[in-house]
Amino acid sequence: MSNPKMIGSRGLRLITFITTLVLLLNNEQVIGATINHEQSLDKRGLHARAGGAVPVYTTCTAPGSFALTFDDGPYDLGSKLDATLDASNSKASFFINGNNYGCIYDYADTLVERFNKGHLIASHTWSHVHLNQGTYQQISHQLDLMEKAMVKILGVKPLYFRPPYGEYNDVVLQVLRDRGYKGLIMWSQDSGDSLASPPSSSEIVQSYGSYPEKSIVLNHETKSLTVNEVSVVSDSLKHGSLVQKKKIDSKSISIDARCLVLNFDLII
After folding, report:
1. Active-site residue 71, yes or no?
2. Is residue 181 included in any domain, yes or no?
3. Do 102 and 29 belong together in one domain?
4. How does pLDDT run along the chain (268 residues), one tens digit per residue?
5. Is residue 110 classed exposed, middle or buried when 0-12, 13-18 and 19+ CB atoms within 10 A define those classes?
6. Do 229 and 254 fall within a single domain?
7. Do residues 165 and 96 both lie within one domain?
8. Which InterPro entries does the entry link to (predicted)?
9. How many domains, the chain?
């Protein structure tokens, strides 16, 4: 066995170097494990980005489906709307803003209740801006604010997105792709509730009767006209009187695997 006194300065330096190298290698293994863990958590996001452009949907893809969607909330009329949907056992999709008709944090309880009941909560930008006029960074900032708010309130990030005014371009699609979104959702039918001279409730209900199956219908939860007519629409869908010979589902559904036939979760 070597005498410690005989090691000398060169030996001490060698021991120090070896010790440092071992520590670095161990640390590299930890860092590598962390990177691999993060990659495994983001497999769906990475897969979406690697799979090409974010798909744009204007209708459901599942036969016999019918999707009610509501933009621009959350808002004070939401409680009445939610009660109406509950009464008919209908599910809807809500494309919400962070700061439009109200502050999203003031309606946190409403959003949590909707989410727990199986409604889809998706992004509609933070402040309802014209995305076609924005840069990559500006568009990304709008989405980032919404994602952070939804994580704080619901604990999840949105996977679906609807652009305000239905406006989008290649830059918008690139931002969505880079942020791991699964779909940009447009619509096939517009109830017209946001027009300067909107149709009457009876006209809206009547128009629903002409909508084909697989329809994605645009509504706004900020319009009392919409909230009032949803009860008639939902009840008619439930009993089949509105669609008659059309093979519509027995109730309205949210934009999820039943509407789009997609094989991924609603949240990441």
Report:
1. yes
2. yes
3. no
4. 545 444 454 444 433 333 333 333 333 222 222 223 222 223 333 333 335 789 999 988 887 778 889 999 999 988 888 988 888 788 889 999 999 999 999 999 999 999 999 899 999 999 999 999 999 999 999 999 999 999 999 999 999 999 999 999 999 999 999 999 999 999 999 988 888 888 877 787 777 777 887 889 899 998 877 777 776 776 666 544 443 333 333 344 555 545 664 433 333 2
5. buried
6. yes
7. yes
8. Glyco_hydro/deAcase_b/a-brl, NODB_dom
9. 2
* pTM of structure: 0.72
The parent domain of residue 122 ranges over: 55-260
Report the SS3 class of residue 62.
coil
**Residue ranges of the alpha helices (H) in the chain?**
8-41, 43-50, 78-87, 108-116, 136-154, 170-178, 201-208, 224-239, 257-260
The answer as to whether 266 is a domain residue is: no
* Residue 183 shares a structural domain with residue 116: yes
Catalytic hit among 119, 220, 249, 256: 220
Q: Is residue 48 part of a domain?
A: no
Q: Which helix (H) or strand (E) holds 215?
A: strand 215-220
The residue annotated as part of the active site, out of 71, 72, 193, 249, is 71
Beta bridge partners of 121: 94
Task: Report yes or no on 64 lying in a domain.
Answer: yes
| Distances, alpha carbon 244 to alpha carbons 105, 145, 166, 241, in Å | 41, 43, 30, 5
Residue 220 is a catalytic residue: yes
The CATH number covering residue 190 comes to 3.20.20.370
Q: 248, 192, 244: which is closest to 215 by C-alpha? A: 248
User: How is residue 103 annotated by DSSP?
Assistant: B
